[in-house]
Design brief:
heterodimer, A: globular, B: alpha+beta, Aldehyde Oxidoreductase, domain 3, Aldehyde Oxidoreductase, domain 4, 3 domains, eight-stranded mixed sheet, six-stranded mixed sheet, 29% helix
């Protein structure tokens, strides 16, 4: 039985774990303030808050409830707009009213809940973060400028927030109702689920609930996102270790990764949106096996290894680049699942970059993406790993290009000489994301962009022509 | 005044179609639609689907008691396919089951056998095959052939603009249930309640008075729910009528995107002739409108393309012809701008072609040809109260175009990877339904015994702020505060025979009707007050809920005046009717005075293109807009920002893709991208052009719904100019949207 607290009410339900949280709140509990826009996580109209008890404190995040399996709500505090409303408007509701941040009103609740998520977050607030909090919310009416003005007010009001005690601060300052203070106590009374089902393995659900909505609904799904032993980022013996169920927001905010990836925020902001990053697991992105998975391209370039276990505990480790055999075909047995990944920590001579171009910069699927890790000593390429997505049926590791460039001087000539080799390694097709000729040109540009970004004094745009 | 709906919006308490509490015994509907764009239906086997647990019925064209016909302008569109499929997504049958999930299961069990027929997706191909919705139309002024002979410069070219998905965040939907006497009540997410009512009556074979359509509000419409909300309402009504139970149908996003029409793609040819002084002397254009499989609103959309073919310029000799081409796409339909943007994009492209060839800035040509009072549009309307030059000059001087251009030039000189470009886009948009008989509206006003007021109009609230504007009108007419006024749902039993909420004219038409109703009521109750206060009616006014005589407050409150009026048996209900005066149009001559007035404005868009990645960011849009006397700046500025960004979306990232089989590839939000918060211009600076407005605009506050969308066209030319700064040899492309793909291909065109 799935148990959780919905606003102020303890829920015990036998609804399927693979039904969506959205359908549950709207059609089973008739909380219709939450809207349905797309059912694929791309509009944010269904955004809800999920609170998790961590070390005695509630930690809140937003999520797209249309692609969240109900089972992932177990033991959590789920908050809809009805659970945020107080007699008076909260400061972020008032800001949206004062700045005319809504027209038809249909997407509005999603924005409001996203603002609430930022208010409750245990991170320092900046204006960019307030905007980032609503990066998964699409509005077709306003053109967003009025919402930006509302966000600026929200930011002003959050400047003095105490991020360590954000829930208490939010209650005290009228951002959320008083009952939020009682939730931690109530949540602690819910027993975790120890017996796991045998069906489809589901992490955050952000891909499966889009692509196989009814199949997930019908399956006795095995939920992974909440397994604490599969979560977390560690540094050990010269490696970074990442648990399979770690979500993308955790990567983006990781104090362990940050020193080695100074542009981590810029890179991972290109991956989906805040509410999806909050629930999408690393392993899910890898196992989905999309040829344009962003994290896949990211981690292939880092020369990542993944560890797979099966039910009886047998374990194997393989290079991520070797996982992909054909379109959505993996070098793993159906009963094997990812437990974690690891990659060597970049040393002082090693540089990393990630590139992605899509029709829309953010919250879009890549036309082409690419990662690079390059070690350079005395202007010579010692070691290089380059990945490319969207240019073939599987996420591609540019083996021959890497081989060619290893040992070559780091200059324009070497890079330009490798272009034909790179083109020989890829086989893009024309589809909704672009024509073959565009993808080939774009791959070249992004490949070159790696060098322009990492070594701006050596590489200039003029020389590509 | 802040939008009166905003508090309910931010609390999630506004009621949309899918939020209506269901009556017990409600069943769900799902359309079984064509998986092919053009085919003959050999057989459909519903046996397995019907046998499924939870399936109540599957209805086909054979179950229709009235006519299987939903065409709004021409009767050329069946509700359900009979023997032929005309577009991918064409409804064939209606599945009725206990849940949506069962509907989906049943849908998969239906077996269709068909024989494929040739598919047309390209409007030019349709014209070659003489596949037209109706005969072409031509607007003419002067003698264009002769005028070309005298031109110093003549340029020709092709211009394409793609369609646009409305992407109202609330999908289409309806909820119907039977009432007594074989009547039916439908809640519909529609901009056109009367169209829904009339079509249901026709399909069910019953009288219109048996069909009640009610609309609370829409989660966005943008034209997509003007005519195309109708099929879903008819489907629920039909099933409800036959099965005698409540039927609900809220479309899944992908079903909505696949089955509904969009903004019309156009493929056009132009020929433009100028004299040595850059005066455009002759302009010829041929528009190929991709209408899709049936007429829908295409004839009216096409007409507006012709009306706006010369945008805000005077050209003495013009000949523009439009073909409405019948293809195998879903029937395309109204979308903010309604054909106008497509026409304007062509003339603006022609100007860029000429400017590039002449090596001058496009704005030199634009400026030299702006409309002046006394000039004639190609359709015969003479410019009166024109603001084209005022809007142009004010915009360019207020925002210092010379400085902006210099900044861009300096930036481009100093940067090799990033290039900036400027696009200037002036607009002139006619306000009124071009079909004159549609320009009327009614408002029903009740004053209740306690002095509270209930207002029904024919207008539908869909985010444009209509409710707020109506309250503003009533509160100022009556002198009472807004808490005493309620705007009722839009309902065909209260306000009948209405035109849809469209053409930017909703506030004008319904607002004027409301003004008329309020004034009539005021006249009647003032007679009561005059008696009571021993004064003349003309000396009376009401402010802050109190009656004033000659500007001095009395003790007679609004509430007690209403009580007295009721005791005096004065009618406290009024129905106001308004029909726009002056307008007329003769289609046999293609001449007349179709518009009550025009809205003007000018915009300057600046973009930065990353020439390495082929992506772009909009630095700013500076614009001057002719609001007249805006009656609500919060709402009107919001319309400008929203319309502009929608226009930028159409011109940049929103790319509709059909394959050669007529299948929509951009069929979800994951493949069809509309602007998000990061893709809008960093700065949108709107200045009001201080004009007196127009007497035919409600309270001289000019219509604001559609015109700003066309500022978005400036985005296209800004990108084009940035590309030229990087690659001066790049051949001009007029093929919207300017996606990152096209940008990169043009940046590196010479390779």
């Amino acid at each position: 039985m799935i148990q959780f607290i919905l606003n102020q009410q303890l829920i015990k339900t036998n609804e399927p774990a693979g039904s969506t949280l959205l359908d549950f709140v709207r059609y089973k509990k008739h909380l219709v303030g939450t809207k349905i826009g797309c059912r694929e996580g791309d509009c944010g109209a269904c955004t809800l808050l999920m609170g998790d008890l961590r070390h005695g404190k509630m930690v809140y995040k937003t999520l797209t409830s249309c692609i969240t399996p109900l089972g992932n709500a177990h033991g959590k505090h789920i908050v809809t707009i009805e659970g945020l409303n107080m007699e008076e408007l909260s400061p972020f509701q008032q800001a949206m009213v004062d700045e005319s941040g809504q027209q038809c009103g249909f997407c509005t609740v999603g924005f409001i809940v996203s603002f609430a998520g930022e208010c409750l977050s245990s991170q320092e607030t900046t204006y960019d973060k307030v905007i980032s909090a609503i990066d998964g919310n699409i509005c077709r009416c306003t053109g967003y400028k009025s919402i930006e003005r509302a966000a600026a007010i929200v930011y002003e009001k959050l400047k003095n927030k105490d991020p360590i005690h954000s829930v208490d601060w939010c209650v005290k300052n009228g951002f959320v109702p008083a009952y939020f203070k009682e939730i931690a106590q109530q949540i602690s009374g819910i027993e975790p689920i120890t017996k796991h089902a045998d069906g489809l393995v589901v992490g955050g659900g952000t891909d499966l609930l889009v692509q196989k909505h009814d199949a997930v609904y019908e399956s006795d799904i095995h939920l992974f996102a909440d397994k604490s032993h599969l979560q977390g980022i560690q540094e050990r013996n010269g490696y970074i270790l990442i648990g399979a169920a770690t979500n993308t927001t955790e990567l983006l905010n990781s104090p362990i990764l940050k020193p080695y990836f100074p542009r981590l925020w810029d890179h991972l902001k290109l991956v989906s949106s805040t509410p999806i990053r909050n629930i999408a697991t690393v392993a899910g992105n890898l196992i989905n096996a999309s040829p344009i998975g962003d994290l896949t391209a990211f981690f292939i370039a880092l020369d990542t290894e993944i560890t797979l276990n099966d039910k009886i505990g047998t374990s194997q480790t393989l290079k991520l680049k070797d996982l992909y055999k054909g379109y959505k075909t993996l070098a793993k047995r159906p009963d094997e699942y990812v437990v974690g990944l690891q990659f060597p920590i970049p040393d002082q001579h090693t540089y990393f970059n990630f590139e992605k171009v899509s029709k829309r910069r953010y919250l879009d699927i890549a036309t082409v993406n690419s990662g690079i890790k390059i070690k350079v000593i005395d202007e010579v390429i010692q070691q290089i790993h380059i990945s490319a997505g969207g240019v073939g049926p599987i996420p591609t590791y540019l083996t021959k290009t890497c081989e060619y460039l290893t040992g070559k001087p780091l200059n324009e000539q070497s890079i330009k000489e490798s272009f034909p080799i790179m083109q020989s390694e890829v086989s893009p097709i024309s589809d909704a994301r672009g024509t073959e000729s565009y993808k080939r040109l774009l791959l070249r540009q992004l490949f070159y962009a790696h060098f322009v970004e990492l070594f701006p004094s050596t590489f200039k745009i003029e020389s590509i022509l | 005044m802040i939008n009166v709906d905003s508090i309910h919006h931010v609390r999630g308490e506004s009621i949309y179609l899918d939020d209506i509490p269901l009556r017990s015994g409600t069943f769900h509907a799902l359309t079984y639609d064509a998986p092919v764009a053009h085919a003959h239906i050999d057989s459909v086997d519903y046996t397995e689907a019907l046998a499924m647990d939870g399936v109540k019925a599957i209805l086909t064209y054979k179950d229709i008691p009235g006519e299987n016909e939903i065409g709004g302008i021409f009767p050329d569109e069946p509700l359900l396919a009979e023997h032929e499929i005309h577009f991918w997504g064409m409804p064939i049958a209606i599945i009725i089951a206990e849940t949506e999930y069962v509907c989906r299961k049943a849908k998969k069990a239906i077996k269709l056998k068909y024989t494929e027929l040739p598919v047309i997706v390209d409007p030019r191909e349709a014209r070659r095959q003489d596949s037209l919705i109706f005969p072409p139309r031509t607007f003419k002024l002067g003698n264009v052939e002769k005028a070309f002979e005298a031109c110093t410069y003549i340029y020709e070219g092709q211009v394409d603009s793609n369609g646009q998905e409305h992407l109202y965040i609330e999908t289409q939907g309806a909820y119907a249930y039977p009432t007594e006497n074989g009547s039916i009540r439908i809640s519909s997410s529609t901009q056109g309640p009367t169209a829904v009512q009339k079509t249901i009556a026709n399909v069910l074979g019953i009288a219109m008075h048996k069909v009640e359509v009610d609309v609370t509000r829409l989660g966005g419409g943008f034209g997509g729910k003007e005519d195309q909300a109708t099929p879903w309402a008819v489907i629920t009504a039909l099933a409800s009528y036959i099965l005698k139970c409540p039927i609900k149908y809220a479309l899944h996003r992908m079903d909505d995107m696949r089955m509904t029409g969009k903004r019309h793609p156009y493929s056009s040819d132009f020929k433009i002739g100028l004299d040595a002084d850059l005066k455009i002397k002759a302009y010829q254009a041929t528009f190929h409108q991709n209408a899709g499989a049936s007429a829908d609103l295409s004839p009216a959309v096409m007409e507006r393309t012709l009306f706006h073919a010369t945008n805000t310029y005077f050209i003495p000799d013009v000949e523009v012809t439009a073909y409405s081409c019948k293809t195998n796409l879903p029937p395309n339909t109204a979308f903010r701008g309604f054909g106008g943007p497509q026409g304007m994009f062509v003339i603006e492209s022609a100007i860029r072609q000429a400017a590039k060839a002449l090596g001058i800035k496009a704005r030199k040509i634009q400026k030299a040809n702006l409309l002046k009072n006394g000039d004639s549009f190609p359709y015969g309307q003479i410019i009166d109260r024109g603001e084209a030059t005022n809007a142009w000059d004010t915009c360019l001087s207020k925002f210092d175009i010379e400085q902006l251009e210099e900044n861009v030039a300096t930036f481009n000189k100093e940067n090799s990877r990033y290039k900036k470009g400027i696009g200037i886009m002036p607009i002139c948009f006619g306000i009124s339904f071009t079909n004159t008989p549609m320009n009327h509206a009614r408002a029903l006003v009740h004053i209740y015994l306690d002095g509270s007021v209930g207002i029904s109009t024919g207008g539908v609230e869909m985010g444009q702020g209509l409710n707020t504007k109506m309250i503003q009108i009533a509160m100022s007419e009556f002198g009472i505060d807004p808490s005493k006024i309620k705007i009722e749902t839009t309902n065909t039993t209260r306000v009948a025979n209405t035109s849809p909420s469209a053409a930017s004219a909703t506030a004008d038409l319904n607002g004027k009707a409301l003004e008329i109703a309020c004034r009539a009521l005021k006249d009647r109750i003032f007679e009561v007050a005059a008696d009571e206060l021993q004064s003349s009616s003309t000396a009376l006014s009401i402010k802050n809920n109190l009656v004033y005589v000659d500007g001095k407050a009395t003790t007679l409150s609004w509430k007690s005046l209403i009580t007295k009026a009721n005791l005096a048996r004065v009618c406290l209900t009024e129905n106001g009717h308004y029909a726009t005066p002056i307008i007329h149009f003769d289609k046999s001559k293609e001449k007349g005075h179709p518009f009550a007035y025009h809205v003007y404005g000018n915009s300057i868009t600046t973009v930065t293109v990353d020439c390495l990645r082929g992506i772009y960011d909009f630095d700013s849009v500076h614009l001057v807009h002719d609001f007249g006397k805006s009656m609500n700046t919060a709402i009107d500025y919001g319309q400008i920002e929203g319309g502009l960004v929608q226009g930028i979306g159409w011109m940049t990232m929103e790319e509709l893709l059909y394959n050669e089989k007529g299948r929509l590839l951009s069929n979800a939000l994951s493949t069809y991208k509309i602007p998000d918060i990061y893709s809008v211009p960093k700065v949108i600076d709107i200045k009001a052009l201080g004009t007196d407005g127009h007497p035919l605009a409600i309270r001289r506050s000019k219509a604001v719904g559609e015109p700003p969308l066309m500022y978005g066209i400036g985005a296209y030319f800004a990108i084009q100019n940035a590309i030229l700064a990087f690659n001066p040899d790049s051949k001009l492309r007029f093929d919207a949207p300017y996606t990152p793909e096209k940008v990169l291909m043009d940046l590196y065109q010479n390779e």
